[in-house]
UniProtKB/TrEMBL annotation:
The keyword rRNA-binding does not apply. It comes from Nitrosopumilus piranensis. Keywords: Nickel. The keyword Nuclease does not apply. NCBIfam families: nickel pincer cofactor biosynthesis protein LarC. It comes from the Archaea. This is Nickel pincer cofactor biosynthesis protein LarC.
Length: 406
């Protein structure tokens, strides 16, 4: 199963995500009861009313959180909010994954404020996030995710709309996105995008929940069979779009999904030796794969197409290497989603002909069938050490590994 979070138009806030999870099928009564049980851990705050009701947002029916509070406090230490959230998740008997998730969300919020204001984390004070609605969002979402079993599913996030214009809060007015939003998204692989909406569309609480829920970003929906859809309404109304967060849950095949960058360039004036060296250097920079294809280009010139698969975090170094090593004047960049067979890495110690070797291999599983592939560098080393061909060595290693697997 896979869950797609779609904040491309209206962004994301804690109450929008919580509402969309209830609309997706999470147990509404379980969430409300859990939040009410957590109220006692948040001093000087009372939840007068909490419910979820259907509403219309620009023609789209969505579920909206109805929350009425009584709290005179407008400032709290981050550590106080963190303790309340941790005590709540412990008291509710949630899964370990759920408890870890909830704590990581408030940690991200505290860490962003600490870095922005240059103060220790235990000295961070919240103003906008000081209300019990921060606990309602984080604890409620944690309960809903646990109830739906989503901590064990693949979660994908489409580009996150952050809006535009300016935002005014306790520290004054600044351009949108505010510093907290930028800090929270900084170390994730999720993508943000501005719009012509003159409003903040993604809140710090929504951002910190999102980056701790998934690190998988895609530009469009994966191939999937839709099982259920959840619509969560925000509090604001906009003229140009529905202020609604969309969740789509469905099934894919047994393959995992990821997203990679593909770099390509044509070179027609370098030798095979340079191309061989180029492959080694680019792989050392963290590329997933490098391929070189021979062909004919304009004016009948023989050419080599260099094609590289890599991740976002490696792209700058790889492009630099590609240009410096080949002298190419341009590199094409595209993004591609992939289906990949789930695999795990293993390392075993084997004794062959009285000699000990460390052997790495990848084990894959697909439609109930398992297989493994020995790391070629290890296979080559053992083959040379035993003075046997690779064709002879591989069956020996596979036989020993199969013994250990069984």
């Amino acid at each position: 199963m896979v869950l797609v979070i779609d904040p491309q138009i209206a962004g994301i806030s804690g109450d929008m995500l919580l509402s969309s999870l209830i609309d997706l099928g999470a147990d509404k009564r379980k969430v409300i009861d859990g939040i009410k049980k957590s109220e006692k851990f948040f001093s000087n705050s009372t939840i007068k009313k909490i419910d979820f009701q259907k509403t219309q947002k620009r023609g789209i029916e969505a579920l909206q959180l109805i929350l009425e509070l009584d709290e005179p406090t407008h400032e709290r230490k981050g550590s106080e909010i963190k303790k309340a959230i941790n005590d709540s998740t412990q008291n509710l008997g949630l899964s370990e994954k759920a408890k870890t998730f909830a704590e990581s969300c408030i940690n991200a919020l505290i860490s962003s404020e600490s870095k922005i204001h240059g103060v220790p984390e235990d000295s961070v004070h919240f103003h906008e996030a000081s209300s019990i609605d921060t606990l309602v969002d984080i604890v409620g979402i944690t309960i809903a995710l646990d109830d739906l079993g989503l901590f064990d599913e693949k979660i994908i996030c489409l580009p996150v709309s952050i809006g535009g214009g300016s935002v005014t809060f306790s520290h004054g007015t600044m351009s949108n996105p505010a510093s907290a939003i930028l800090e929270i998204f900084k170390n994730s692989f999720l993508k943000i995008q501005g719009t012509d909406a003159n409003e903040e569309l993604t809140t710090p609480t929504g951002a910190c929940i999102l980056v701790n829920l998934t690190n998988t970003s895609m530009d469009y929906y994966p191939s999937m069979k839709i099982k259920s859809i959840g619509y969560g309404a925000g509090q604001k109304d906009f003229k140009k779009f529905s202020n609604v967060l969309k969740l789509v849950r469905g099934s894919t095949n047994d393959l995992e999904i990821d997203s990679v960058k593909i770099l390509e360039t044509n070179v027609d004036d370098i030798s095979g030796e340079i191309l061989g060296n180029l492959i080694e250097k680019i792989m050392q920079k963290g590329a997933r794969d490098v391929s070189i294809y021979h062909g004919i280009t304009k004016k009948g010139r023989p050419t080599n197409l260099v094609s590289i698969i890599c991740d976002d975090q490696n792209i700058d170094e790889i492009v630099d290497t590609l240009i410096l090593e080949t002298g190419t004047l341009g590199v094409r960049i595209s993004e591609s989603n992939r289906f990949i067979v789930p695999r795990t890495n293993h390392n075993v110690s084997l004794t062959i002909n009285g000699q000990s070797f460390e052997v790495r291999y990848k084990k894959s599983s697909f439609k109930g069938k398992t297989d493994f592939k020995i790391e070629f560098d290890d296979l080559k080393h053992i083959s040379n050490t035993l003075e046997k061909s690779i064709k002879e060595t591989e069956p020996l290693l596979r036989k020993e590994i199969e013994k250990m697997e069984n």
